[in-house]
Amino acid sequence: xxxxxxxxxxxxxxxxxxxxxxxxxxxxxxxxxxxxxxxxxxxxxxxxxxxxxxxxxxxxxx
Length: 62
Hints:
Number of domains: 1
Low-confidence stretches: none
Strand order of the largest sheet: 1-2-3
Distance between the termini: 26 Å
Strand content: 25-35%
Helix content: 25-40%
Number of strands: 3
Number of helices: 1
Structural class: alpha+beta
């Protein structure tokens, strides 16, 4: 399994601030719940990686 392996899994992802000053990505799929907490600087880095991946995907899609 890797980034290019397609799966037919339904998942829900929520993103938001916690009451302790972290950014939480919460992924729920079936019986699995995965909370991932990041400090704001880490969250900014992740956001930059997502933007870069989106840009690369747009180029591949054309």
